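Hi everyone, sorry if this is the wrong subforum. Our group has a chain we'd like a structural model of before ordering constructs, and none of us has done structure prediction before. Sequence below.
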Amino acid sequence: MPFKISFDLPNGPSINIADPKMNLEESYPRSPREKLFGLAQIPRMLDKANAKREGLLGEYIFPCPIDKIVLRFLGLSDQEFMDKIYKKEEMEILKWLSGIISSKETTDIDYINEKILQPKRVWWKKIYWFIFKILNPTRKSFSSWVEKVDYEEGRL
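Answer:
Right subforum, don't worry. Here is the predicted structure as tokens:
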């Protein structure tokens, strides 16, 4: 079966799938909402992993808790992920990621995307945020971590 590239990025495919010179001290990684082969967070992880390897991660963390969800789902460690993308051509990275992600069930990918993009709040967190909003009505509230990140990085 021929290899097929599928992009699900909000603004079309990115020019650089994995920029080896990503400097997160001066710019932002891509949004957690951006998907590659149907899986959210992957483009952002590529940016952060490359920046970490180059010592240019800035205030970002790789792997953050969301990265760990995706890495666990893919069956990879953060070091394996960084090693696989380090100084590789875009097509090599795409083929590798496509092979891993295409082996997953669509329902499992949807579950991970929902876990990342629309996490369910437990009852005590809903109460906490309700009280917090009453005590501090001017503070911007967010429905998810992803929404907060996109707001802080100027995408909302």
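For your construct planning: Helices lie at 42-53, 65-74, 78-85, 90-102, 106-117, 123-135, 145-152. Residues 7-117 form one domain.
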